Amino acid sequence: MTLLVAKNLQIQFKTKKGIITAVRDVSFSVESGETLGVVGESGCGKSITNMALMGLLPDNAIVTADTLSFNGVDLLSLNEKGWQDIRGGQMGMIFQDPMNSLNPCYTVEQQINEVLEIHCPEMTKEQRAEKILSLLVDVGIPAPKERLSAYPHELSGGMSQRVMIAMAIACNPKLLIADEPTTALDVTVQQQILELLEKLQNDHGMSVIFVSHDLSVVKDITKKIQVMYAGEIIESGITKTIISNPEHPYTKGLLDSIPSFHDTKDDVLFSIPGLVPDLHSRPKGCQFEGRCFNKKDDCSSSWPTITQKDDRVLRCHYPLK
Ligand SMILES: Nc1ncnc2c1ncn2[C@@H]1O[C@H](COP(=O)(O)OP(=O)(O)OP(=O)(O)O)[C@@H](O)[C@H]1O
Ligand SMILES: [Mg+2]
Questions:
Q1: Are 90 and 70 in contact (CB under 8 A)?
Q2: β pairing state of 224-229 and 35-39
Q3: How many helices (DSSP H) and strands (DSSP E) are in the chain?
Q4: Tens of pLDDT along 37-82?
Q5: Which residue of 74, 99, 113, 279 shows the fewest CB atoms closer than 10 Å?
Q6: Ligand 1 and 147: CB distance under 6 A
Q7: Is the pLDDT of residue 265 over 70?
Q8: Does domain 2-90+171-314 have CATH number 3.40.50.300?
Q9: Which residue lies with its CA nearest to atom 2 of ligand 1?
C-alpha cells in the first residue's frame, strides 16, 4: 500500500529580498514498511521537504502541490487540530540534535508520558507507565527503570537519541521521519542507532524516511533513495542500482567524495567544485550546470524535465551511461 504521495511539491519562502522557491517539482512516494533515503548537500531542501510533510514549516512558507497525501489524508487541507492528530501519532520524527530536542526541565518518564497522554488518550496511567518502560527496553536503554527519573543533561548523546526515538515510536507511527539522526553522534554510537532503527522498523513494520547528507550512511539501510540538489530531486530509484551505477553527474560526484567507498590509500578523494546556486537567482537551465563535468551548451539554457526509465527517475540532459 502506498502510504505517502507527493506530486509536484513546491516550497517557497517570503523573504525580505522577495519570494524564493526552495523546493520545486518534487514528486515521490513511500510504500508501507519501506525505507526511503534522502541525500544531498547542505541546503538542498531535505529538511524543509520533511517539515512540509509534518506541517512544521514557519509562517513565511508557502507550500503547494498537486498531491500531498498521507494514508489517504490530504495534508494540504489540514487545520491545526488535524496536524496534531497526525504529528506524533501517525507520523513520528527524530532530529539531528537530540540534546536540543528534549525538554531540559522534564525527566525521561515525563517526556514520553506527555506524548502518550496526547496521542493515546485511551491509555490509563498504569498502562502508560508500563509502555514507557517497554519503550526504553525496545530502544536499548540500559537499566531502564533507573533512567526514568533522569533529566536530559544526565544522558549521553546516544542515550538522548534513544529517548527521542522512544518518543517518536511511542504511538506506533506508520511513518518515521529521521532527519540526520546520527550526525551529532560519534561513529560507534551512529552504527548502534542505525541498527536500532533497522530493528524497530522490522519489528513494527513502519515506513521510514531517512535523511542524511552522507550516502555511505543510507546505502545499507534503505531500499529506495532520492538525491536532492538545489531543492529538486535530480536522481532517484533503487539504492543498490543508483550506488553501483549513478547516471546523474551530481550523484557520481557525491559517491566519489565518500572516503569509505575508496579501497586503496592511493585513491584521491574527489570534491565537487563550486557552490550550490543562490535561491534568489536560480540558473535558467539545469541547477547543477555550473559545477558539472559533463555539461553541454544547452544545459545552461533549458531546464531538464524529469525522465523515468524502469525504476530510475532522472533530471539531466546528458546522463552518464
Ligand atoms: N524560514 C526560511 N526562510 C527562508 N529560507 C529558508 C527558510 N528555511 C529554510 N530556508 C532555505 O531552504 C533551503 C533548504 O533548507 P533545508 O534546511 O531543507 O536544507 P537541508 O538539505 O536540510 O540542509 P542540511 O543538510 O544543512 O540540513 C535552504 O537554502 C534554506 O536557506
Ligand atoms: Mg537539514
A1: yes
A2: parallel
A3: 11, 13
A4: 999 999 999 999 999 999 999 999 999 999 999 999 999 999 999 9
A5: 74
A6: no
A7: no
A8: yes
A9: 13
